[in-house]
Amino acid sequence: MRIPHAVLALGVIFGAAFAGCQKQASKASAAAPSKPAADFTLQDTSGRQVTLSEYAGKANVLIHFGATWCTFCEAQVPALNALSAKHPSNDFVILSVDSGEPADKVAGFVSEKKISFLTLVDADGRVANAYGITGIPHNVLVDKSGLIITQGTDIPEAEIANLAGS
Known about the structure:
It contains 5 helices and 8 strands; from the N terminus they run αββββαβαβαββα. By secondary structure, the chain is of the alpha+beta class. It is globular.
């Protein structure tokens, strides 16, 4: 049986589109309640060192793993900006971790998309590897005690609201 070239071309196009960001992680997977988040230190887009553990005991942290080329990640930016504006920074922080890209490219993206939360550069991918990230976007919610509450592709808005109320 012969497959028409147009059908084959469409299959390749759609396959590439879904493969792009879809090394995509699962929708939501509850982490073991006692699993501690791996600590890390990365530079933000202005060159300042940011360490996850500096928020321990002070703020709940959403670690958003993404990249400038990922359309699914970009689609989450408005919701992340809204969450950042809604919750006081002394109680809730978003750390976006861009993996595998140079700082200047990430800084340009942050400026162009008017990203209002901290964006960190993981140029060599070591932090993403430490978290076992195999697809993006991937969101990891860490409570004030440093424990992973939940993780997955979706932004865990209900869990963030629950933590804010506690």
